[in-house]
Design goal:
Elements (H helix, E strand, L loop, with lengths): L1 E2 L1 E3 L2 E3 L5 E6 L6 E7 L2 H18 L4 H17 L1 H12 L3 H21 L6 E4 L5 E9 L2 E5 L7 H12 L3 E5 L6 H13 L6 E3 L4 H10 L3 E7 L2 H13 L3 E5 L4 E5 L5 H13 L9 E7 L3 H12 L20 H16 L3 E4 L18 E4 L6 H4 L6 E7 L2 H8 L4 E2 L1 E5 L3 H10 L4 E4 L15 E2 L11 H5 L1 E9 L13
Parallel strand pairs: 1-5, 8-9, 8-11, 9-10, 11-12, 13-14, 13-19, 14-17, 16-17, 19-20
Antiparallel strand pairs: 2-3, 4-5, 6-7, 7-22, 15-16, 18-21
């Protein structure tokens, strides 16, 4: 199966195109080939999107929303199929894949509701016989660059608010996981989304992503990926005065205080750290534990880790799937050695799995380090794999300081039964998301998603805040006085 670009409502086939393999990380099997597009492919897509946007912006927002309701309904009908495709191309276990598809469904219905809101403000004017208001206006053509770890959820956070706000878009999915974009294009076709509103351009970020950033008619770039790449996107986009929305890395921590429900905390840590095999920007990679309960937390983590089943995520009994590719395996292995060299104590895991039934996939053991120094590389740098670093502290104040010591600021969590500690933590933890008595994952689509410092640049995906990325504010003054009124000059 060859995946070609979806542009202006058509599949753009080309005999001269170059393709690369899409590989199932659980089996090593090639499941498709995806086009590696060129700058000219981007130019063609932008031209179609720009032309379509002029008419799309005039479609009433409630009518634009109707398409999202239909998209969400078709996704709901095809949920199991989409989940299976997602597991095959990305590797996450099937129950997680179903959850991710559901997130896309929820986002479709939520943003469809915004079609009857898209609220602005009306305010009293400081002058007589004058009316003042602000409204949202579409930006135009927007570029979406999405990662491989959540190939449909993150795309829905970006594309659905763009659609309802009256924009058209180019979407560059990750080359590792293009099949979900293909499935969404089929849904766009079936619901009759007007040609040119949704355009999918496959290919490498260095080519397609760069061409989108450099193109003068793409006014917004919404990017999710590594902090290193995000910095590059911001630099190039800034030269063109584009609005650039970045959602990048994380080095998230669960704080476990001495009065915590330890069993609940361990359950939340395991899910946050080893769900999606640690390949989430919100994954827990640090456990900041009070010294009084350190030993208990360690022992219970080790006990529960023994029950984690590892393998192909299509098997309902499997709890931990593969990592995305061999490059990821090498990176995780390198950090295991770094941790050992830094003096951290390896309690469990730390190896690439070589079992006969898993040897063709990319599997890494769930790993637990203890006695990790808060300022070590193991505790400071994003690994993006199933690795926990346990750090001991003596107080809540120290725990908050350790949490805030990293370059990232996406998600944090505290387990405690003390309401005073909880309120102090949620005030002082410098992350965009804070969980209380829950792990670092599980964001809901009706609240903003994103973070501070090396995680983001002030914009947010999801929730109403996503509309700020894909709209411009327009202030409107209607003077019906019949005379020249000069605002503050005449109002003193």
């Amino acid at each position: 199966m060859k995946l070609n670009n979806y542009v202006n409502g058509n599949w753009q086939e080309s005999e001269q195109a170059t393709y690369t393999a899409v590989v199932n990380p659980a089996t090593g099997e090639e499941i498709a080939q995806v086009k590696l597009s060129t700058e000219e492919d981007v130019n063609i897509a932008v031209k179609a999107a720009k032309k379509a946007q002029q008419e799309w912006a005039l479609v009433p927002a409630p009518e634009r929303a109707d398409y999202l309701y239909e998209i969400g309904s078709l996704m709901k009908e095809r949920k199991e199929h989409l989940a299976e495709v997602l597991t095959k191309e990305m590797g996450k276990v099937i129950e997680e894949a179903r959850g991710e598809v559901q997130e896309g469904i929820d986002m479709a219905f939520y943003m469809a509701g915004e079609g009857r809101r898209l609220v602005g403000d009306t305010v009293p004017s400081e002058l007589q016989n004058k009316f003042a208001m602000s409204v949202r206006a579409p930006v135009g053509v927007v570029g979406l660059i999405t990662p491989w770890n959540f190939p449909i959820a993150i795309a829905s956070w970006k594309s659905f608010p763009a659609i309802v706000a009256g924009n058209t878009f180019l979407w560059k999915p990750a080359t590792e996981t293009p099949l979900m974009a293909y499935e969404m294009a089929l849904i766009y076709e079936e619901v009759g989304l007007p040609a040119g509103v949704a355009n999918i351009v496959f290919g490498a970020g260095s080519t397609v992503g760069t061409a989108m950033i450099e193109h003068p008619d793409v006014r917004v770039i919404s990017f999710t990926g590594s902090t290193e790449t995000g910095r590059h996107v911001a630099e190039r986009g800034g030269r063109h005065l584009k609005k650039v929305s970045l959602e990048m890395g994380g080095k998230n921590a669960v704080i476990v205080m001495e009065d915590a429900n330890i069993d609940l905390a361990v359950e939340g840590i395991l899910w946050s750290a080893y769900g999606t095999t640690g390949q989430r920007c919100t994954a827990c990679s640090r456990v900041i534990v009070h010294k009084d309960v350190k030993e208990e937390v360690e022992n219970k983590l080790l006990q529960q880790m023994e029950g984690l089943t590892i393998g192909n995520g299509l098997d309902e009994k499997i709890k931990v799937g593969p990592v995305i590719n061999k490059k990821a395996l090498r990176k995780i292995s390198d950090y295991i050695e770094i941790g050992k060299e830094e003096g951290a104590k390896l309690l469990a895991g730390g190896n690439v799995l070589q079992k006969e039934d898993l040897k063709d996939g990319h599997y890494f053991e769930p790993t637990l380090f203890t006695d990790v120094k808060w300022n070590s590389r193991l505790a400071q740098e994003e690994i993006f794999g199933p690795v926990i670093s346990l750090i001991v502290v003596e107080s809540l104040e120290e725990a908050i300081k350790v949490n805030n010591s990293v370059d990232y600021g996406l998600s944090s969590s505290i387990y405690s039964q003390d309401v005073n500690k909880i309120f102090q933590a949620q005030r002082d933890l410098d992350t965009g998301i804070v969980y209380v008595n829950a792990g670092t994952t599980g964001a809901e689509i009706h609240l903003p998603f994103g973070g501070t410092k090396g995680t983001g640049n002030g914009h947010r995906d999801s929730g109403k805040a996503a509309l700020d990325v894909f709209t411009e504010w327009k202030s409107i003054y209607v003077d019906f006085s019949g005379t020249l009124q000069r605002a503050q000059i005449d109002n003193n």
